[in-house]
Amino acid sequence: MGQEYFYRYPVRAGAVELTVADVKSNMSVLHDADDAKIARLMAAAIGFLEGEYGLSIYRTDVWLHIEKFEDCIELKKANNCELLSVNYFDVDGAEQEFSLANVRQSQFMTNFLRLRARAGSVWPAHYPQFGDVVVKYKAGWAVGDAEKMPVEIGQAVMLIVGEWYKENSDTTDTKKYALSNGAARLMSGFKVI
């Protein structure tokens, strides 16, 4: 099977803070006895969506190691991406940082970011015997404790957690990891194509 690509329709304005209290309210759970369980289900649902849709929902530091500069460097899981640095090794084996002012970034679908040297610039000579080219970036929406993410993803997480919580131990693996129609529709803007 070849490479998978993701497409994202334009993101509507708005973000949601996803907390255990929000999820409990969505499920009409009034007691605190299952808070730890609900928190685990939230983490599992977010991990499931990250894997299924190729997203970085939680804010993540990524170090991409490549052997050499290519005309186009593709960053994966680079939604809501902040490029931090592009490091390489010069002829003397000294680590250098390529100026980000000379890097052109273009979002390729929601989850991919392409990097190219700007017009008038070229990628520097890199000597791989000293180490890899390292591209450092942050990706994802959930910043700090606020855990802000697009409304569609937050609502999909709440639906998934509600289904898993309701089903509890009666759920088969196949059924547990299938998205409901509601959650699938909410995530349709992130679908694999």
Descriptive notes:
With 193 residues, this protein is an alpha+beta fold. The chain folds into two domains: 15-57 and 145-190, Hypothetical protein yqbg (Orthogonal Bundle), CATH 1.10.3230; 60-139, Sandwich (Immunoglobulin-like), CATH 2.60.40. It is built from five helices and nine strands. It has helices at 20-27, 35-53, 151-167, 173-176, 181-186, and strands at 15-17, 60-66, 73-75, 82-89, 95-98, 103-108, 112-117, 133-139, 148-150. The longest helix has 19 residues, at 35-53. The model is unreliable at 1-13 (pLDDT under 50).
Report the top-level CATH class of the largest domain. Answer: Mainly Alpha
> From the coordinates shown, what is the CATH architecture of the largest domain?
Orthogonal Bundle
Helix residue percentage: 25-40%
**Portion in beta strands:** 15-25%
Q: In angstroms, what is the radius of gyration? A: 20 Å
Brief write-up:
With 193 residues, this protein is an alpha+beta fold. The chain is built from five helices and nine strands; from the N terminus they run E-H-H-E-E-E-E-E-E-E-E-H-H-H. It folds into two domains: 89 residues, Orthogonal Bundle (Hypothetical protein yqbg), CATH 1.10.3230; 80 residues, Immunoglobulin-like.
Q: How do the strands and helices of this protein lay out in sequence?
A:
Elements: E1 15-17, H1 20-27, H2 35-53, E2 60-66, E3 73-75, E4 82-89, E5 95-98, E6 103-108, E7 112-117, E8 133-139, E9 148-150, H3 151-167, H4 173-176, H5 181-186
Antiparallel strand pairs: 1-9, 2-8, 3-7, 4-5, 4-8, 6-7
